[in-house]
Amino acid sequence: MSKIFRIKINEQKELESVYAQSLDKLNNFFDIRWEQNKPKVYIVSDRETAESLRGKQTPDWIVGWNGDGGAFVLDKDIFLNTKNTNRDNDDYKMLIMHELAHLYFKIVTGGKTQPNWLWEGTSILASGQAEKWNKPAEFRSFLDNKDVYSEAGHALLLLTRQFGKEKFIQMLKNYKTYDGDFSGLFKNTYDMELTYATFEGLIKHQ
């Protein structure tokens, strides 16, 4: 796999608009203002290039990722035309916002990326994917870092609907200096145990 890549400045006004709108929404969601050294988005032209950048083969479901250099997403045409998917333009906009949200999460939490369900779930929530994706019938796997994409975002959606987004974001900000297990911070914030039963209760009260 080559380690040399040709980079070209984007000339698509639509993508520039998506980027600007995403930053506005994420600034509002995370309650911060990212004004200097704004994050970069790299559009990766094909799967082969993606695998070379990542240094390994990638399954079809991996269409974006993030790193120290910014957010990386596959070209829109490849994203929309991947077999056995039913994606549209809004999904692509959400993908870009999802990967940017990871970078915001790192700023708010001081570089933390665990637990994985919180890391991914927050991006799913912030990007609007939690509103669009199918709702799980129950919560039974995400706290064990299984089925994270299908459960975690909706779990956080219910949590923020019940107790407000501001409380959730403050918890993330407190996580920056919190030394214990995240479950302890969750209990301190919501006065509830971090269990499947807690989230099942949120389903009943939605």
List the helices and strands and how they pair.
Layout: H1 13-30, E1 41-44, H2 47-54, E2 64-67, E3 70-74, H3 76-81, H4 89-109, H5 116-127, H6 129-132, H7 148-163, H8 165-175, H9 182-190, H10 196-204
Parallel strand pairs: 1-3
Antiparallel strand pairs: 2-3
Explain the overall architecture.
- Strand 2 (64-67) and strand 3 form a beta hairpin.
- The longest helix has 21 residues, at 89-109.
- The protein folds into two domains: 12-110, 2-Layer Sandwich (Zincin-like); 112-206, no CATH class.
- The protein is globular and about 50 Å long.
- A three-stranded mixed beta sheet has the order 1-3-2.
- With 206 residues, the protein is mainly alpha-helical.
- The protein is built from ten helices and three strands, in the order αβαββαααααααα.
Task: Describe the structure concisely for a colleague.
With 206 residues, the chain is mainly alpha-helical.
State the CATH topology of the largest domain.
Zincin-like
CATH class of the largest domain: Alpha Beta
CATH architecture call of the largest domain: 2-Layer Sandwich
> What's the Cα radius of gyration?
18 Å
Structural features:
206 residues, Zincin-like, three-stranded mixed sheet, globular
